[in-house]
């Protein structure tokens, strides 16, 4: 089955530690995205990538970093510079340039910083 | 860029009640419009979409009509079930042809037996 996987589902880290969230897709999509969701709030775009080896900052990129070395993978690192990293993180992908722009989402990773 | 304004929740309904969640958009041209649903602890799933004006998207008993006269894309269901309890997001592309989507703030629906 094609889809997007995120791991782990729950992640706990101590304050001051960097942590990397995994996102893998087998949909052969060119574009991938990372969103942050806080309780009772909508989605905010952190980073997106439209092609391998290229990515752009979203609305709240400070304190985060990404890489796109492979089409299938778009890991997100939450660095110690992120002031309030506890949140639900969602990865998504889409066909680049598609007329209908539909995005497909993974199940999410809930990060808690202790 | 394009944007949507979504009805604030939370919304609480009894089972078999009629549901409407309002969504209005501001856009250049006529971009595709989407409704996504998020069940507790999960990612978002596409619920339905409409790709041009006057189109009606439908899925799982939910419907939404792309109305250019009122710039609206309201989500409706005639008879909700407990299993419909979730957060619903309206969305559209940031710009014509863009892959990036603008999501509404979400509306939490709780259906009680």
Descriptive account of the structure:
In chain A, 0% of the residues lie in helices and 49% in strands. Chain A has 114 residues and is mainly β. Chain A starts with a strand and ends with a strand. The model of chain A has no long low-confidence stretch (mean pLDDT 92). Chain A has strands spanning 4-7, 10-13, 19-25, 31-37, 43-51, 54-57, 64-66, 76-78, 87-94, 104-105, 109-113. In chain B, the strands form 3 sheets. In chain B, strands 2, 5, 6, 10, 11 and 12 form a 6-stranded mixed beta sheet that branches. In chain B, strand 10 (86-93) and strand 11 form a beta hairpin. Chain B starts with a strand and ends with a strand. The relative contact order of chain B is 0.34.
Topology of helices and strands:
The complex is a heterodimer of chains A (114) and B (113).
Chain A: E1 4-7, E2 10-13, E3 19-25, E4 31-37, E5 43-51, E6 54-57, E7 64-66, E8 76-78, E9 87-94, E10 104-105, E11 109-113
Parallel strand pairs in A: 2-11
Antiparallel strand pairs in A: 1-3, 3-8, 4-5, 4-9, 5-6, 7-8, 9-10, 9-11
Chain B: E1 3-6, E2 11-14, E3 19-21, E4 23-26, E5 33-38, E6 44-50, E7 56-59, E8 62-65, E9 75-77, E10 86-93, E11 101-103, E12 107-112
Parallel strand pairs in B: 2-12
Antiparallel strand pairs in B: 1-4, 3-9, 5-6, 5-10, 7-8, 8-9, 10-11, 10-12
Q: If interface size is counted as residues with C-beta under 8 Å from the partner's C-beta, which chains form the largest one? A: A-B, 28 and 24 residues
- The residue fraction in helices of chain A comes out at under 10%
Tell me the number of helical segments of chain A per DSSP (H or I, 4 or more residues long): 0
Evaluate the radius of gyration of chain A. Answer: 13 Å
Quickly count the helices of chain B.
0
Order of helices and strands of chain A: EEEEEEEEEEE
Derived from helix and strand composition plus strand pairing, the structural class of chain A reads: mainly beta
In round numbers, the mean pLDDT of chain B is 94
Reported for the largest beta sheet of chain A, the result is: 7 strands, mixed
Annotation, overall tally of beta strands of chain B: 12
Structural shape of chain B:
globular
Q: Any low-confidence stretches of chain B, pLDDT <50, length ≥5? A: none
What letter string, H or E per element, gives the SSE order of chain B? EEEEEEEEEEEE
The largest pleated sheet of chain B is described as: 6 strands, mixed
N-end to C-end Cα span of chain B: 41 Å
Rg of chain B, Å, rounded: 13 Å
Strand content of chain A: over 45%
Mean pLDDT of chain A: 92
């Amino acid at each position: 089955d094609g889809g997007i996987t995120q791991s782990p589902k729950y992640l706990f880290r101590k304050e001051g530690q960097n942590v990397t969230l995994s996102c893998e897709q087998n949909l052969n999509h060119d574009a991938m995205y990372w969103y942050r969701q806080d309780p009772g709030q909508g989605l905010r775009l952190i980073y997106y990538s439209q092609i391998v080896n290229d990515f752009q900052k979203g609305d709240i990129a400070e304190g985060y970093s990404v890489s796109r070395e492979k089409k299938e993978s778009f890991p997100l690192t939450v660095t110690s510079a992120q002031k309030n990293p506890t949140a639900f993180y969602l990865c998504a992908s889409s066909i680049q340039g598609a007329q209908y722009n539909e995005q497909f989402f993974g199940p999410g990773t809930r990060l808690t910083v202790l | 860029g394009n944007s949507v304004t979504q009805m604030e929740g939370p919304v609480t309904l009894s089972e078999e009640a009629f549901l409407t969640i309002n969504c209005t958009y501001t856009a250049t041209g006529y971009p595709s419009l989407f409704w996504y649903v998020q069940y507790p602890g999960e990612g978002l799933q596409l619920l339905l979409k409409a790709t041009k004006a006057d189109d009606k998207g439908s899925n799982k008993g939910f419907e939404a009509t792309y109305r250019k006269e009122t710039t609206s894309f309201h989500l409706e269901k005639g008879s909700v079930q407990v299993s419909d309890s979730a957060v619903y997001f309206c969305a559209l592309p940031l710009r014509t042809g863009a892959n990036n989507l603008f999501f509404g703030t979400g509306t939490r629906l709780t259906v009680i037996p």
